[in-house]
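Quick log. Single chain, no ligands specified.
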Amino acid sequence: DYSTAIAYLLRAEALLKNAQSPEFKRKQVEIFSNMGLNLVAENQIEKGIEYHKKALAILSETDFRSAPRYRVTLYIFIIDASLKIKNYPEAKKHLDAALNDKKAPKNNFTQGLLFKSQAAYYEAIDSTEKALLAYKNGLSITDSTRDNKVKAEISGNLCRLYLKINNYTEAEKFANMAVTLGKSLSLLKIIAQGYAVLKEVAANRNDFK
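-> predicted structure:
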C-alpha cells in the first residue's frame, strides 16, 4: 500500500528533520529516496522527483561511505521518473551527472542499471542504434551479476527494438531469452512482451506453425 508507506515515511521525515550526524543524514537520504519511489509509484511523478533531489542535496552536504552508491542510484531514479513524464532535458542532465561522477561505484550491478537507464533515454528520443548498444552493454554486464530480473527486462526491450527495425533474427533471439527468464521469475508482463514479439516475427516471416 503506497499511500500507507508514504504516511509512515512522512512521520520518519519529521523525526529526522534536524538530524546532523552522518548516520542520521544517511537515514534521511533513505527516507527521501523511498518517498520518491512511492510517490512515483502513485503517479505523483514530479513530487517524487522532488524528494529524490532532496536526497541528493543531503548527499552534497555530507560524506558517508556509501554516499557515492546512493548518489548514482538517485540519478537513475530521476532519469527513469523524468522519462515517464517525457522530461528529456531533466533525464539527460542526470544521465550526464551519473556518467561523469568520478566517485561512482564501478560494480557491475550499478553499471548495469545505469546502462539500462541510458538505453531508455536514447529509446525515448528515437536514437534506436544508441539504445540498442546501451541495452546490450547493460545485458553483458548484468550477465556477471546473475540479476535475472534486470536481464529479463533488458531482453524484453531488445527484442522489441529489434522488431522495430525489422531485424527478426535478433528480435526472436532476445524474445526467447525474455520469455525464458520471465518464466523463471513469473514476470508476466515480460513473458507477454516476448510472446507478442515472437508472434510478430512469425507473421512477418509468414511462419505460422
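The chain has a mean pLDDT of 89.
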